[in-house]
């Protein structure tokens, strides 16, 4: 007796959708094809090219780089990924492209790599499994919990019928929040320029006039892209450490909450023993936090364990590789560190690590300008240039290798935090600031632009006022200084909130009450397999979601080799749940 072909709709064909197909291909021989079930149609819905998706598409400036070394980018699993499915190894970006591992590839090359991975994943699917790409937007999804789903596409009169739907939407655009709406309205009323949070490659920068001051709020990776597009992108060039302007550049006045750029990517290789992680923040600690009556508070219950974990990674490396910079034996230090509370550990470090530069101070790292005041704007420009030069020097000097140990600690912590769900926005910003900053060459370019007068630093806790027909920026870092401009750019991605998302499918689910938000606005999903949860906390049997807009968000859809790949683990769990459901459905139909 023949059975109807089963159908899976994946909304989003970027790296996350591609990773899911790779895991379907890896698990299908065991979970689907081996059961005698034949026939599966996978429908990919995305207006952008499969593999690359929106963020990594070819149609963007070749001046825009990745912020990871090519050797630190992979879409393939290895034995460090804790998952039920089989490992299917494959090349990193640098192996595939035959480039130096330390290269910061442009995004177009990464897009080519992702397209190749997609093609390889599709080719690895068992016979009878067919992939169809629909270059359209998904508008809505309907259907009962126990029946086939209907996925409606832009421009199509009939829906796709699906046994299961997976939302792999990636980074989402969002409606403006109240503050941004007020600024946008003010700009319209006074003929000013206001560019709200956006993926920089999609922003229309033509309204930012040459020579004019532009206020920029945000000092992370979106700012780096903006800096590149408004300088080299307008015909300027670098002659060594000197920037040669084209005359088409505006003058960027940049500030943020911290007032400093993200830390440079580390520019040396790891050698020797890795810190044995997790040590103080692992599965047992997460179990205990999840069992707390009334829920957990991140600052009270989670952050102290993270601090201890990162400190352990730091000092394990310091004592192991640079013992001449310590005052006691590692065994003594480790025993006292493990047993001590925060104040006791602080006293231990002060006595055992003579040079303050060798001590890990996370609060000072997070807010380096807190309480710092400069007498003049020019003094601050000099001071921040010195800070950036110091960061570049430290991040490229292996004698400071405890910094790299902390980076590995951050990755370990992130893997554990996924089980806790939504821990609030601060952690993700802190992680990106320390672990996901720009390539060193970009910060050297920033220094050159600062010396050329085309980038000016505003300071920490940058305040923007809309008054007297202009925008004005100020910071307590340089008391009494105000910068006036007719243009304001919010250099950051929109917050990944479900309620303000402009994605029509997600909005429709939100309006219908078919999804639930966390207090931070993230989509609640089952942490074991990604099924979307309803208001009663029950997982929808036929709908899944993966990505940064969910409360099990990961550092990215791809990762460094041999670091556990939390996104890969999620993809595997979802792929196995999808295949098992479709297999059982087909078997029931043929019974």
TrEMBL record:
Occurrences of domain FAD-dependent urate hydroxylase HpyO/Asp monooxygenase CreE-like FAD/NAD(P)-binding (ranges): 9-171
SUPFAM superfamilies assigned: FAD/NAD(P)-binding domain
Pfam families: NAD_binding_9
Region (Disordered): 546-568
Superkingdom, natural source: Bacteria
Protein name: FAD/NAD(P)-binding protein
Species of origin: Streptomyces prunicolor
Lineage, highest ranks first: Bacteria, Bacillati, Actinomycetota, Actinomycetes, Kitasatosporales
């Amino acid at each position: 007796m023949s059975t109807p072909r089963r159908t899976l709709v994946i909304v989003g064909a970027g790296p996350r959708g591609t990773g899911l197909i790779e895991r379907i291909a890896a698990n299908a021989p065991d979970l689907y094809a081996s059961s005698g079930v034949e026939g599966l149609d996978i429908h990919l819905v995305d207006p952008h090219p499969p593999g690359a998706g929106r963020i990594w598409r070819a149609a963007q400036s070749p001046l825009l780089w990745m912020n990871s070394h090519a050797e630190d980018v992979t879409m393939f699993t290895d034995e460090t990924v804790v998952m039920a499915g089989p490992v299917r190894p494959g090349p990193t970006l640098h192996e595939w492209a035959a480039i130096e591992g330390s290269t910061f590839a442009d995004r177009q090359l990464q897009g080519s790599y992702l397209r190749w991975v997609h093609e390889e994943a599709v080719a690895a699917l068992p016979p009878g499994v067919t992939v169809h790409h629909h270059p359209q937007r998904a508008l809505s999804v309907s259907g009962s919990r126990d029946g086939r789903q209907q996925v409606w596409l832009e421009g199509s009169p009939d829906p796709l019928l699906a046994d299961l739907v997976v939302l792999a939407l990636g980074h989402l655009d969002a409606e403006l929040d109240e503050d941004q709406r007020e600024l946008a309205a003010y700009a319209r009323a006074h003929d000013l320029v206001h560019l709200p949070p956006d993926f920089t490659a999609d922003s229309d920068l033509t309204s930012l006039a040459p020579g004019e001051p532009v206020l920029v709020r945000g000092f992370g990776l979106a700012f780096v892209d903006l800096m590149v597009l408004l300088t080299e992108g307008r015909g300027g060039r670098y002659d060594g450490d000197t920037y040669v302007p084209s005359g088409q550049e505006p003058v960027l006045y940049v500030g943020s909450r911290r007032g400093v750029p993200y830390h440079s990517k580390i520019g040396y290789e790891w050698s020797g023993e890795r810190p044995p992680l997790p040590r103080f923040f692992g599965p047992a600690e997460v179990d205990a936090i999840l069992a707390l009556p009334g829920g957990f508070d991140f600052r009270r219950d989670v952050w102290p364990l993270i601090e201890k974990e990162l400190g352990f990674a730091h000092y394990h490396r310091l004592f192991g590789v640079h013992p001449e910079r310590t005052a006691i034996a590692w065994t003594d230090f480790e025993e006292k560190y493990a047993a001590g509370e925060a104040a006791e550990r602080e006293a231990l470090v002060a006595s055992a690590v003579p040079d303050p530069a060798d001590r890990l101070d996370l609060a000072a790292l997070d807010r380096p300008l807190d309480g710092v005041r400069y007498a003049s704007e020019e003094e601050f420009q000099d001071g921040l240039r010195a800070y950036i030069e110091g960061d570049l020097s430290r991040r490229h000097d292996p004698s400071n290798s405890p910094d790299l140990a902390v980076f590995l600690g951050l990755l370990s912590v992130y893997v554990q935090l996924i089980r806790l769900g939504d821990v609030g926005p601060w952690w993700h910003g802190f992680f990106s600031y320390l672990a996901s900053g720009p390539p060193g060459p970009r910060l050297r370019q920033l220094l050159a632009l600062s010396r050329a007068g085309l980038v000016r630093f505003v300071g920490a806790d940058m305040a923007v006022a809309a008054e007297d027909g202009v925008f004005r920026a100020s910071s307590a870092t340089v008391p009494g200084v105000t910068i006036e401009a007719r243009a304001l750019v919010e250099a950051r991605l929109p917050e990944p909130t479900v309620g303000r998302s402009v994605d029509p499918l997600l909005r429709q689910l939100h309006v219908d009450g078919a999804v639930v938000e966390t207090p931070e606005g993230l989509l609640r999903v089952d942490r074991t397999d990604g099924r979307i949860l309803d208001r009663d906390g029950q997982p929808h049997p036929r709908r899944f979601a993966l990505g940064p807009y969910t409360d099990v968000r990961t550092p990215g859809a791809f990762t460094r080799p041999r670091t556990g790949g939390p996104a890969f683990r999620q993809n595997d769990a979802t792929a196995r749940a999808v295949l098992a459901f479709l297999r059982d459905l087909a078997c029931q139909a043929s019974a």
